[in-house]
Amino acid sequence: MKAAVNQRRERAQSKDKLLAVTVEKNRQDMSLKSMQFNRFMLIRYATALFFFVNLYWALIMRHTWVVIIPLAVMFVSGFAIVEQIKLFGQHTNQLIFSKLFFRTQLAVNVALMISTMTPLFASLFQFVNNTNQNRYIVLVILLLGFGVILFVNKRLTLIASNHDKYYSRLVAYQAILKKNKGMK
């Protein structure tokens, strides 16, 4: 009788240990996925920022020919958004559509910055009074966007070559996991 009770207790302890190992493995896998996904956090936020800026610009300019510009950029951003969503399931460091989106946004920003000094300003920014002060304000806002885009492009380049700080942390975490696994 005691032997049967001891056997059940040992099986229960064995199942508990197996469950604990499985839970720990799942936690480590999820941590790795999260760390890989977090490498792209700035890129995701910048993509969302520019998507909504273009959306608002398209809504304001919906009754003019200018609406084509933000809609075209939003179309390209759609591919980047899908690519970034897929990152959680399929890790890669080569974000082709995100690079294309930010280069497209960069080109649009440069063209808009140039337009602040031309008569095109009045038709591209009909929601802003055509004064020199407003032109400078729009130019400063476009320059801020330009800076964000350059920073994101730099981050994309670092990620593509695995030289970003998050990658080194990821590698260090993986090394710790291997070391701990080897000790068991």
Descriptive overview:
The protein is an all-alpha fold and 184 residues long. The mean pLDDT is 88. The protein contains seven helices and no strands. Helix content is 81%, strand content 0%.
Strand content: under 5%
Which value, in Å, is the CA radius of gyration? 26 Å
String of helices and strands: HHHHHHH
Mean pLDDT: 88
SS class: mainly alpha
Uncertain stretches: none
| 3D shape | elongated
Query: What is the rounded distance between the termini?
Result: 34 Å
Number of strands: 0
The main sheet comes to:
none
Considering DSSP H and I runs of 4 or more, what fraction of the residues is helical? over 70%
**Total count of helical runs of at least 4 residues:** 7
